[in-house]
């Protein structure tokens, strides 16, 4: 288990990044997978939490909304992915870059959580015999990273 903080706030407002090579490699791979899925089919069922219906009770209005702003929604997520992929090797992030990281970590968690059918009352006691155990471990890791990044960013608002 990792015990050191992966994200901390620097003296000048930057976010310090202390990820090991394996962690950066994992995040890079997950970003590539998310980008591929966004490029191929943003309507994919596993991406539904990234693009929830704007008009839950009116499928026609929701379809109109998606036609009007769908590319903008995908574009925003792609720009955040661009930032993470560009800065994955850096030891510090600007506040704007950290916000993109936060967006991507959240997106990765949402997609993986949808795939694994994660619920709020779900137990995360990992059983290595469970075929989902590796993905659940990654989900837990992403949640842990996201929490640390939120804390580091929040220090700038005190």
Please tell me the overall pLDDT: 90
Q: Helix- and strand-based class?
A: mainly alpha
The unreliable regions are: none
Taken in chain order, the helices and strands follow as EEHHEHH
Q: What is the global morphology? A: globular
List strands and helices in order, with pairings.
Blueprint: E1 7-9, E2 15-17, H1 21-40, H2 59-87, E3 92-93, H3 95-116, H4 133-154
Antiparallel strand pairs: 1-2, 2-3
Defining key terms:
mainly alpha; 5% strand; 158 residues; 59% helix; 4 helices; three-stranded antiparallel β-sheet
Gist of the model:
The chain is mostly helical. Helices cover 59% and strands 5% of the residues. It has a three-stranded antiparallel β-sheet.
Plain-language structure description:
This protein has one domain. Helices cover 59% and strands 5% of the residues. The protein has helices spanning 21-40, 59-87, 95-116, 133-154; strands at residues 7-9, 15-17, 92-93. A 3-stranded antiparallel β-sheet has the order 1-2-3.
């Amino acid at each position: 288990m990792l015990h050191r903080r992966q994200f901390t706030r620097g003296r000048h407002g930057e976010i310090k990044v202390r990820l090991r090579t394996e962690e950066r490699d994992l995040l890079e791979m997950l970003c590539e997978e998310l980008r591929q899925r966004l490029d191929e089919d943003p309507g994919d069922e596993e991406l539904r939490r990234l693009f929830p219906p704007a008009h839950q009770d009116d499928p026609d209005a929701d379809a109109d909304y998606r036609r009007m702003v769908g590319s903008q929604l995908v574009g925003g997520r792609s720009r955040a992915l661009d930032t993470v992929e560009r800065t994955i090797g850096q030891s510090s992030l600007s506040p704007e870059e950290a916000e993109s990281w936060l967006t991507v970590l959240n997106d990765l968690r949402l997609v993986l959580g949808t795939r694994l059918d994660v619920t709020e009352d779900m137990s995360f006691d990992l059983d290595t015999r469970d075929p989902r155990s590796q993905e659940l471990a990654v989900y837990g890791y992403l949640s842990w990273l996201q929490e640390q990044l939120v804390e580091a960013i929040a220090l700038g608002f005190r």
